[in-house]
């Protein structure tokens, strides 16, 4: 099975990124490191835009590609994601929807 | 400097179908209404599978489809059960839908923008690029307005309608919902819009240019997860998507878009989409699937919740936008009554809940109130049966020298091996109980 790269999918979309304001943040990285490892860190695979990437030490949050669905917010076993919508006018801008 | 206090009759949070429907009805009644939308324009953050039932929209704008941005009139609806290499189809085509449209496919960025222009023409003010962050409250804690992200962005109103969508951020802040959604109360759906020439669509789906078909797909694409996929025909594009419970995908370790690729790689779907489908947009959205038991309170003093924010979705019938439109209309009608009485307290706003309970919305959600749990506890309903049906048909229709007696025995043995006759009867009974 050919799985198209997520980067290619996200590249199709239009975003207006608010570079100075990350709307997604990890509240406490220690929880990802110490506690969530046992759960395989669900945010790293349930997110349809691969926003979260665990590099072995840290959680990288690529909020620029966020589709604002809220899956990570609900899936995080420790409620460890500070989740809000981007500021007005920013974020995903669907052309078709 | 003395800051002028901004005051409207009603503030609506969110310019999706629920918020726009509410604003439209209020504005037409001469009520001073303002709608805040965080997207660049109404519809720019909105996603759904793409089927809009016409009845709810007709009640707002009669014959809306003659002017609205709709794609195709759905005259054929199909259910496909996928095995690994096989496919069993159930379909219904209805010519009466040509004259009396039942449902249209829509692309939300287009449809919502059109509807918003209609709402503005009726006299409502729509302010995009603006996020509502919190509520303004009076000394006794009652909601008296909203705080937005704009500078000096406080707006006061007699009532606030929450139509924020599936993530109940403000619904919780308003105190209408105590707990957030859990991972078994929402499905994550991903969708792609695929370019396809009009004639190719007409040809492959056996329809004419204005008319369209829908396909829902159960079975092997979901890799054993409970999920529903869909393929909808638009005018010059096709919407392809799938949804699974967050709880299930969390357990599986898979990614939502891997399931979508699995769907697109199924031989039957490939036949329909062509070898290298050209994707134009990739979308994701949550679907509130908690059902009746997961609904919030619908109203409190000076505040009402509509649409997805109030868990108003019946995914078995893929109804959601029509619930949103209808609940938005009910909320507006309730507030019109509140203006007549000059009372925006719970005493008057309970009319909203009465309207919901008398309507198909709560009646249908009550009917299916146990379905989410039945499906959650019985994943075999989608894991085993589509495959079993395909194998049974496959065997039944293959002539290879096996006698029909032996064939029947083989099929029954297969059922026994994979599920067992009694568990199967049990499954069907549970399913029947959940949907009857």
UniProtKB/TrEMBL annotation, chain A:
Domain 4Fe-4S ferredoxin-type: 57-86
Lineage: Bacteria, Thermotogati, Thermotogota, Thermotogae, Kosmotogales
Family: To ferredoxins from P.putida and C.tartarivorum, ferredoxin I from A.vinelandii, ferredoxin II from D.desulfuricans.
The keyword tRNA-binding appears for this protein: no
PROSITE patterns named among the record's database cross-references: 4FE4S_FER_1 (PS00198), 4FE4S_FER_2 (PS51379)
Classification via InterPro entries: 4Fe4S_Fe-S-bd, 4Fe4S_Fe_S_CS, ETF-QO/FixX_C, Fd_FixX
Full protein name: Ferredoxin-like protein
The keyword Iron-sulfur belongs to this UniProt entry's keyword annotation: yes
Domain of life: Bacteria
Described purpose of this protein according to its UniProt entry: Could be a 3Fe-4S cluster-containing protein.
PANTHER family referenced in this protein's UniProt entry, alphabetically: FERREDOXIN-LIKE, FERREDOXIN-LIKE PROTEIN YDIT
Organism encoding this protein: Kosmotoga pacifica
GO molecular function terms listed in the Swiss-Prot or TrEMBL record: iron ion binding; iron-sulfur cluster binding
Keywords: Electron transport, Iron, Iron-sulfur, Metal-binding, Nitrogen fixation, Transport
Coiled coil: none
TrEMBL record, chain B:
UniProtKB keywords: FAD, Flavoprotein, Oxidoreductase
Top-level taxonomic group: Bacteria
Record-level Gene Ontology MF annotations: FAD binding; oxidoreductase activity
Cofactor: FAD
Domain FixC-like C-terminal: 371-436
Pfam families (UniProt xref): ETF-QO_FixC_C, FAD_binding_3
Entry protein name: Electron transfer flavoprotein
């Amino acid at each position: 099975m050919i799985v198209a790269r997520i980067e290619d999918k996200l590249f199709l979309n239009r975003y207006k990124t608010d570079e100075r304001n990350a709307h997604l943040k990890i509240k406490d990285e220690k929880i990802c490191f110490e506690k969530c490892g046992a759960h395989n860190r669900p945010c790293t695979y349930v997110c349809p835009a691969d926003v979260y990437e665990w590099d072995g030490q840290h959680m990288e949050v690529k909020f620029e590609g966020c589709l604002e669905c809220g899956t990570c917010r609900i899936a995080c076993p420790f409620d460890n994601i500070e989740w809000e919508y981007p500021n007005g006018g920013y974020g995903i801008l669907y052309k078709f929807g | 400097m003395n800051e002028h206090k901004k005051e409207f009759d009603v503030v609506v949070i969110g310019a999706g179908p629920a918020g726009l429907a509410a604003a439209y009805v209020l504005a037409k009644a001469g009520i001073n209404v303002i709608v805040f939308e965080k997207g660049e324009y109404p519809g720019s953050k909105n996603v759904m599978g793409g089927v809009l039932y016409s009845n709810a929209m007709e009640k707002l704008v009669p014959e809306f489809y003659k002017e609205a941005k709709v794609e195709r009139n759905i005259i054929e609806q199909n259910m496909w059960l996928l095995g690994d290499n096989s496919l069993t189809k159930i379909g219904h085509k209805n010519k009466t839908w040509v004259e009396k449209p039942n449902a249209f496919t829509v692309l939300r960025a287009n449809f919502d923008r059109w509807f918003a222009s209609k709402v503005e023409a009726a006299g409502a003010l729509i302010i995009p690029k603006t996020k509502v962050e919190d509520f303004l409250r009076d000394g006794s804690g009652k909601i008296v307005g909203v705080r937005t992200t704009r500078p000096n962005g406080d707006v006061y109103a007699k009532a606030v309608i929450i139509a924020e969508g599936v993530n109940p951020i403000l619904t919780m802040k308003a105190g209408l919902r105590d707990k957030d959604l859990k991972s078994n109360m929402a499905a994550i759906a991903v969708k792609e819009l695929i370019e396809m020439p009009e004639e190719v669509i007409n040809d492959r789906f056996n329809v004419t240019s204005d008319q369209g078909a829908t396909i829902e797909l159960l079975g092997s694409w979901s890799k054993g997860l409970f999920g529903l996929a869909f393929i909808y025909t638009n005018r010059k594009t096709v919407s392809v998507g799938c949804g699974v419970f967050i709880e299930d995908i969390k357990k599986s370790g898979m990614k939502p878009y891997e399931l979508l690729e699995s769907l697109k790689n199924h031989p039957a779907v490939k036949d329909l989409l062509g070898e290298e489908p050209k994707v134009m947009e990739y979308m994701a959205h949550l679907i509130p699937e908690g059902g009746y038991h997961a609904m919030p309170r619908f109203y409190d003093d000076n505040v009402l919740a509509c649409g997805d924010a109030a868990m108003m979705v019946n995914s078995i019938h893929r109804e959601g936008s029509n619930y949103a439109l209808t609940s938005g209309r009910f909320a507006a009608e309730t507030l019109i009554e509140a203006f007549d009485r000059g009372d925006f307290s719970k005493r008057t706003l309970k009319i909203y809940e009465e309207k919901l309970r008398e309507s198909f919305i709560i009646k249908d959600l009550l009917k299916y109130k146990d379905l989410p749990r039945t499906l959650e506890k019985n994943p075999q309903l989608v894991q085993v049966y589509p495959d079993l049906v395909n194998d049974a048909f496959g065997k039944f229709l293959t002539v290879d020298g096996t006698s029909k007696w032996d064939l029947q025995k083989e099929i029954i043995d297969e059922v026994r091996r994979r599920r067992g006759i009694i568990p199967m009867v049990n499954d069907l009974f549970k399913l029947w109980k959940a949907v009857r």
